[in-house]
Amino acid sequence: xxxxxxxxxxxxxxxxxxxxxxxxxxxxxxxxxxxxxxxxxxxxxxxxxxxxxxxxxxxxxxxxxxxxxxxxxxxxxxxxxxxxxxxxxxxxxxxxxxxxxxxxxxxxxxxxxx
Amino acid sequence: xxxxxxxxxxxxxxxxxxxxxxxxxxxxxxxxxxxxxxxxxxxxxxxxxxxxxxxxxxxxxxxxxxxxxxxxxxxxxxxxxxxxxxxxxxxxxxxxxxxxxxxxxxxxxxxxxxxxxxxxxxxxxxxxxxxx
Lengths: 114, 132
Fold this sequence. Notes:
The complex is a heterodimer of chains A (114) and B (132).
Chain A: H1 5-33, H2 38-47, H3 49-78, H4 82-113
Helix pairs in contact in A: 1-3, 2-4, 3-4
Chain B: H1 21-52, H2 54-64, H3 67-94, H4 101-128
Helix pairs in contact in B: 1-2, 1-3, 1-4, 3-4
């Protein structure tokens, strides 16, 4: 993302703004559901698509996007070897995409199974 | 670094700066962001285990609610509150306020104190609710 500073800056802030209410909601939701057994957790997610499953998916997807662009800045700042830097940029994108896809798949699967 | 093009600027190293609370917040914002990258992978594993089956979920839940797991989750909670509050501090700066030395120092201490207080409050609630 080097040479795309303005886009990067705006995307970082927009995702940050979206994550503020989502993160606060999630911490308080976990107070009631962090200790759930599997049936309770699945019922909580699947039974409340609009107030749980979708906010949870948004939190994770926007979160991974935000973390990916944050990590890009860190890699650009501290990794000076061009080959290693390129490899870490690839790894960063790969991990964020795969983890985001697994989380989304899990939420959809839970909603369909429960 | 000898092959580095002369056009790429390098930051001075951490140890040459005098320690200040504003410096602490700057570094810790990055550190907590990186910690939450890992933490959100733990959240993904939790959901994937629930989607997979009873045995997988019980294994993951067992690890997360073990003493070691709870310490990690406590740290994740603090990282989240720190990054959240310091992120709001960055929004205030983006809006053009709070740049004076007393203001930035005061807001830095507020972020440190606020994140610790919120973390302790949340985990007190966890244990009072008798959750895990």
